[in-house]
Hints:
By secondary structure, this protein is mostly helical. It has helices at 14-30, 34-64, 69-97, 102-109, 112-122, 129-147, 160-167, 172-188, 190-210, 216-223, 231-244, 246-259, 285-299, 301-312, 349-367, 381-394, 400-403, 407-437, 443-457, 467-470, 479-483, 489-507, 509-522, 528-534, 545-558, and strands spanning 151-153, 156-158, 316-319, 329-333, 338-345. The strands form 2 sheets. It has a 3-stranded mixed sheet with strand order 3-5-4, with helices on both faces. Helix 2 (34-64) packs antiparallel against helix 3, helix 11 packs across helix 18 (407-437) and helix 16 packs parallel to helix 22. The longest helix has 31 residues, at 34-64. Bound molecules: zinc ion.
Amino acid sequence: MTTFKEFDYARPDLAAFESAFKEQFVALRSAASAEAFGAAMKRVNALREDFESMANIAQIRHTMNTLDAFYEAENDFFDEAGPVMQGHVTEYYRLLVGCPFRDRLEKEWGSQVFRLAELQLKTFSPEVMEDLQAENRLGSEYVKLKAAARIMFEGQERNLAQMVPFAESRDRDTRRRAKEAVAAFYAEHDGDFGRIYHELVALRARIAGKLGFDSFIPLAYARLGRSDYDAAMVASYRAQVREAVVPVARELRARQAKRLGLPALKHYDEDIAFLSGNAAPKGDPAWILAAGKRMYEEMSPETAEFFGFMTSRELMDLETRPGKAAGGYCSYIPNEGAPFIYSNFNGTSGDVDVLTHEAGHAFQGYRSRHFELPEYHWPTLEACEIHSMSMEFFAWPWMESFFKEDAPKYRFNHLAEALMFIPYGAAVDEFQHWVYANPDASPDGRKAAWRRIEREYLPWRDYDGNAFLEDGGFWYRQGHIFEDPFYYIDYTLAQVCAFEFWGKSRADRAGAWKDYLKLCGLGGSLPFTGLLLEAGLGNPFRPGTIARTMEPIKAWLDGVDDMSL
Ligand code: ZN
């Protein structure tokens, strides 16, 4: 059995790939039967998986040790090689959607791959190549501007990440000053953030025009592979959030204020849930990992097999150490059928979240590795987060083994925070719809729109007289708005579905688990709402779904004596 460190790596020879693709394109064009076309498709996909396997191994090894010059050079190589590969895939997609045997092939491969190919083709033409590069540059400018933050606080210059612990301090004055200092950084660069976004909005409107769209909104949906829902359906979902989630979130904020001994929350109080501190794991990283292993062994035969695969093949790198890149992610190496989990354990409840959330992604990748089409290894992004967020809930009965006496505190806060996130996510989404429906608005007009929308979704939000935040500057910190337009709502859609699994698993754990397994095994072979149907989940776009999902959540939260936590 080969372990991750024994996986072979060699830099792909781009010239050889190009001639291999060209050979298959000839075969696809001249295919005289569905069988011949399908055989060439398989060879194209094998090439894609060879390339992707090497790209992902290089990326993982680079993040595992950023000081390793070899994989740094390999990582740079893939930055350049990725778009070249994208060009080949686009050509393949063109042949696929124009295939004369489409009916026959759809019977064998399903129609989702054709839908995805059609959407991808709509998002690109050589005419917009330079605009796309400009879009990337503006995104990078935003990242750099944030990364350059040097905030003088408590006698030291600090970056934005280093400000987080102060903003979550149990001492109210410390967190107030920390939040003010962070807001001051954004206020100081108001002109830059406003301009970068202004240019991005204009550029995206231009790209949409060149590609034949009325506005950027449908283009953004196509980029995200959304084939089964549109902006009007998402608007009706947000209306349900306003009706069924915002009032519950508002009550939870009032309870939070009471727990903190405050008459009402100011914006700098929102990130602290308990005066006694949040639940933290009761052991070191090795102890947490051992508890995680036991949990997956006990949870089900399927998770036991999965976690055994991950550990015996050393497909996890969890502990932080010098030279490791920040963050956490789940990757997949198609040629090995192997997911990979990467993180930086730091002794907080976030370590347990990695073992439940990222492992949920990895579990789905493992359950979907039988698919021959790379498109079906993962679904679209809103569906991807259902696997991870639901696994967080399926893991609830084992929280005592991580948090001991703090487990009730962990569970209450986990559910409350997940719920309170939904209105914010919906506000970010409504804001973006407004922005791209009004591409000629001014930077100040956008800030005013944000504040108006924020008041609807986060009616408790009190900026304590901070002029910049009162004027609508909060969203500058939300990178998705700049870099990944319209993606943010996906987290809320998935959360609602995970809530449904939470409710089902409490009423009928075996039944809920069966549905979850089915969902994970379907990978990306269906669009979002198609997956929901197969997994027995409600459609969040249908009126009434959110209210129904919220009922058991609210009842459970109401039943907890949070003052005693
Ligand atoms: Zn995730």
